[in-house]
Amino acid sequence: MNSPFKTPAGFLCLAFLFGAMGCSTTSAVEWMTEDNLALDQLITSGKPALSATEIVDRAQINGKLKETSSNLPVFSFLRKVIISKPTDKNATEKPQTKTYQAYSNNQDQTLIKVNGRLPSLKETEEDRERNRKRQRRFLERSSKKGSDKMMSHNMDLYKEKFIPRLIGTETVNARPAYLIQLKPDTNHKIKNGTVDRIMNQMLTKIWVDQEDFQVSRLEAELVKPIGIVAGLIGSIKTIRIRLEQQRLTSQIWTDLKIDADFDIRILTANYTFKMKSQSADFKRLPAKKP
């Protein structure tokens, strides 16, 4: 994937670490308490009465436009990713910092710096191939060159996995947003059993901008540890992900900040994985000549 967490359901990023997790289980995720005051104020505000499903559907359609429309501008930006990789000594290695040249239409990003130095051509190609391999395995990316429609495909693929519910309203970066919980539907099975098990235990909230109908924030947290091979080998103890998007135009939003933490036990060893991503220097690219 272009960034380690570049999906509306960002918690897919760690799935590639586990090849066999066993059968899907019931979900421990419960519905959150609704903010009745906020919902009453929304009704009296004069805004159209939209259901959670209608809001999510509009956000999905708008989120797909940036990679499916040939009429929208494309922005380039720098994505700085700091990763602390797990070790087998119950500790983390020195963080690694990678900087990418990324694009708002989700085309392949390019590695341009590793720990402050220029990468070799080999490092750049190996990094790109690792991303593509994860995409092919867990995001059903085609083996054909290019990934322009990959995110749109996966938004459709995972949409039916979640039941949306409007919880209330909040402000994100001085803009009013709908607060929606996405509750996993355990009756809906997705092809990748590993991802399905993770999704079944994720408490997920999204904030949808009330004007642009774009996802401005996403938060997801594992509410129940997931056993690896029925817990005999280990378990995924913690997953926490927070995504914030940058508004470039009313139709183009892209990731601004991503924070993720994972805690995994393999036999008697504990592994911690941390990732922080910050995007900056957004620039509109010249339009392509016909």
Structure, described:
This protein is α+β, with helices and mostly antiparallel strands and 290 residues long. The chain has helices at residues 36-44, 52-68, 121-138, 150-159, 193-200, and strands spanning 75-84, 96-103, 110-114, 162-172, 175-184, 202-209, 215-222, 226-228, 234-247, 253-266, 269-284. Strands 1, 2, 3, 4, 5, 6, 7, 8, 9, 10 and 11 form an 11-stranded antiparallel beta sheet that branches. Helix 2 packs antiparallel against helix 4 (150-159). The longest helix has 18 residues, at 121-138. The protein is globular, with a radius of gyration of 19 Å.
Labels describing this entry:
290 residues, alpha+beta, eleven-stranded antiparallel β-sheet, 11 strands, disordered N terminus
**Order of helices and strands, N to C?**
HHEEEHHEEHEEEEEE
Total DSSP E strands: 11
Quote the distance from N terminus to C terminus. Answer: 29 Å
Mean pLDDT: 83
Portion in beta strands: 35-45%
Unreliable parts: 1-24
> What gross morphology would you assign?
globular
SS field, number of helical segments: 5
Proportion in helices: 10-25%
Radius of gyration: 19 Å
Q: Biggest sheet, open or closed, and with what strands and sense?
A: 11 strands, antiparallel
Structural class: alpha+beta
Write the layout of secondary structure elements.
Elements: H1 36-44, H2 52-68, E1 75-84, E2 96-103, E3 110-114, H3 121-138, H4 150-159, E4 162-172, E5 175-184, H5 193-200, E6 202-209, E7 215-222, E8 226-228, E9 234-247, E10 253-266, E11 269-284
Antiparallel strand pairs: 1-2, 1-11, 2-3, 4-5, 5-6, 6-7, 7-9, 8-9, 9-10, 10-11
Helix pairs in contact: 2-4
